[in-house]
Amino acid sequence: MRIKDIKKDWTRNKSVYLLAIPVVLYFLIWNYIPMGGILLAFEDYTARGGIFFSEWIGLKNFIDFFQSYYLWRLIRNTLVLSIYSMIINFPAPVILALLLNEVENQYFKKVVQTISYMPYFVSTVVICGIITDFFAYDGALTDLLFKLGLIDQKKDMLSVKEAFPHIFVFSSTWQGIGYGSIIYLAALSGVDQELYEAAKIDGAGRWKQTIHITIPGIAPTIIIMLILQVGSLLSVAMEKVLLLYRPLTYETADVISTFVYRRGLIEGDFGYSTSVGLFNSVVNMLLLFISNAISRKYSETSLF
Amino acid sequence: MKIKETPGRIAFKVINTIILAALAFVCLVPLWHVLMASISDPTYVTQHSGIIMWPLHSEGHPVTLKGYTVVLKNNSLIRGYANTIFYVGAGCLLCIVFSSLAAYCMSRRRTMWMKYLTIMLTFTMFFNGGLIPTYMVNKFLGIVNTRWVIIAMGLISIFNIIIIKTAFQSLPASLEESAQLDGAGHLTILFKIVLPLTKATIAVIALFYAVGKWNEYLTAAIYLTNRNLYPLQIILREILIENSGTSEVDLSTLGNYDLYKKLIQYSTIIFATLPILCIYPFVQKYFVKGVMIGSIKG
């Protein structure tokens, strides 16, 4: 790269570079400068000292977190909610897509699709409002659970710590199953129809066709979605937890991101809170790279 | 070629239909319950347990729209609505302008430095500073507790840029070259030629952004304390989850507030959700398309 080339490039593409300035500035200000703010994690932050003159305490924030009473509870809750959620909410849209794929009446298929996508467009706040209402002492679902004998007495289910993970996970199933199936339906429509014709001639029934053609056909999509899921294992949908948890259910509902939010923004403990957040995003990044590497090795499908 | 169906296949089809119909029912029923309860007589709503399938009423206790009249008089709710419309409108416009600028620059061939921009943007997919440092940057810029912070947060994402860039790159290069020969500058090419030709993709991005912005509450919860700037979702949180925020409700016409509390909550849900649910069936095909565009790059 010589000076002459740079000059030539500049005269030719000057206006493109000028156009890029707002974009570069946006990413510098809101993505890169905050990365520098990670310094906070190694400081005993005080408002007077600010980010540059607060006392440098090295890894003390991290050590405090690893020795804290909450460490185990936060990691356990985060993992329980995300793994439980993955076990239920990852296969659900795949199964729905496979079932929809077997429907021959296009009109019925369309109606089911339209209705099942709908909850996705209802806001988190409204969803949580409906959950709060349905699981209140005299709520519709509390009533149903009581009549089915799943609970001994009616109570406000959102104050029951054992109930929180179930409410959290299954309300997400309700909201996401239809919308999640779109991507698999798209993959299904891309499976080569000639394969089915060939299988029919060979005498394979529908079940065999599903096992040997349909599922392998959409496997790359499933794997990509799985990698993305594993990569966000430690980021539980924080908005929803914040709306649904209460001090009574912190024992099973408080996750790393909500802890960061409370300690940092409500209690003002910036340094400590940043270090916990940093721990969270580093683990997430490692999980993403590890799952991607494993997948690339064994299935030849990978994200990057 | 019609193959005779086996009994197993017929049984499967029946069960499959039942499962899917049940699923559609379950997806619809909570919203239906809220809609029906919102026009029922408040005394019955308070006493009723279980799902409400039809408006609860009797002679002397007719179906009522009282919940809605109260909701429409709630000034913070109306102001929240107006604020949200502003955030969605202004945000959408800026999102499209910035994202397409970025995508346009990144799709320029024969530039020396643009590939570094791509790397710089892609890195933000994997790592970010987190909540507190971002908060401090906004504080330093002096935009905490202003409308700007709501618009700035999440304005451009690398995912949107990649999708738009892919659409731009699918256009023939000769198109832009001939425009350039005619003396058109980059801005003219972008806004007069490239954007109109890729408007389907742009519409999908705008739609996704708008729905996300309409439903977002966390940014406002973190950055806003001025009630006059609150978007709809924050007001909804007060009414539905915190059971407060009704201080501005005119109760004089109602008398017994406790009786009407549920009714007001149900009416609020319908009032806040109806616009999205009404528009949704018409734009559904764009969302489906958007998910597919997203999956191609994946």
If you had to describe this structure to a student in words, what would you say it looks like?
The complex is a heterodimer of chains A (304) and B (298). Chain A is built from 15 helices and two strands. Chain A is mainly α and 304 residues long. In chain A, α3 packs across α15 and α11 packs antiparallel against α15. Chain A is globular and about 75 Å long. With 298 residues, chain B is mostly helical. Chain B folds into two domains: 64 residues, no CATH class; 232 residues, MetI-like fold (Orthogonal Bundle). In chain B, 72% of the residues lie in helices and 0% in strands. In chain B, α3 packs across α14, α4 crosses α8 and α4 crosses α13. Chain B starts with 6 loop residues before the first helix and ends with a helix. At the A-B interface, α1, α5, α6, α7 and α8 of A face α1, α4, α5, α6 and α11 of B.
CATH topology of chain A: MetI-like fold
- Radius of gyration of chain B (CA) equals 25 Å
Biggest interface: A-B, 92 and 88 residues
**How many domains in all of chain B?**
2
Mean pLDDT of chain B: 82
Features of the shown structure:
heterodimer; A: 304 residues; mainly alpha; MetI-like fold; two-stranded antiparallel ribbon; 15 helices; 2 strands; 73% helix; B: mainly alpha; 2 domains; 0% strand; globular
